[in-house]
Amino acid sequence: MNDSSQDRVGSEGRRGFLSRSWKLVAGLVLATGAFVGYKMITRTQLVRKKVVLDANALATIEEQGVVLDNDVVYVAESGELRVFSRVCTHLGCKVELRDGDLVCPCHGSRFDLRGAPENGPATAPLNSIEVQGQVGGERWVEFDVEG
């Protein structure tokens, strides 16, 4: 083979590589755009929820110490009522009560009863929810949930 035929073979190889590379990049860009578009379309709306805690509910929480509701965790300790979101700050699974700690069943993050992370992978505390009111023995909490 002479030098000119070797150049053609080499340049065809380079051209083929560049062509395949551009197709790969274009495919990745399109796939990313489709994924982001899908996430934006299927994004869930947040709905404001209010839970009223009457005297019976407050007595139950005080007696049990920790009560898990569908969306929140109620913790009564030394006469203080604390409320946290059950949503783990790592990837959004709902925490459960295990051995006196709040534990994420998905990846094993543990939180103490003040919502602080004890071990990861979560590094942020559980979202605290303000307890409001003291009208006629009732208290309430308001928070956002996916709806």
Q: What's the N-to-C terminus distance?
A: 71 Å
CATH architecture of the largest domain: 3-layer Sandwich
- Largest sheet entry: 4 strands, antiparallel
CATH classification class of the largest domain: Mainly Beta
Strand content: 25-35%
Radius of gyration (CA) equals 27 Å
| Helix proportion | 25-40%
CATH superfamily of the largest domain: Rieske [2Fe-2S] iron-sulphur domain
Give the averaged pLDDT, no decimals. Answer: 81
Q: What is the ordering of alpha helices and beta strands?
A: HEHEEEEEEEEEE
Unreliable residue runs: none
Write the layout of secondary structure elements.
Elements: H1 3-41, E1 46-53, H2 55-64, E2 66-68, E3 72-77, E4 80-85, E5 96-98, E6 101-103, E7 110-111, E8 117-119, E9 128-129, E10 131-135, E11 138-146
Antiparallel strand pairs: 1-11, 2-3, 3-4, 4-9, 5-6, 6-7, 7-8, 10-11
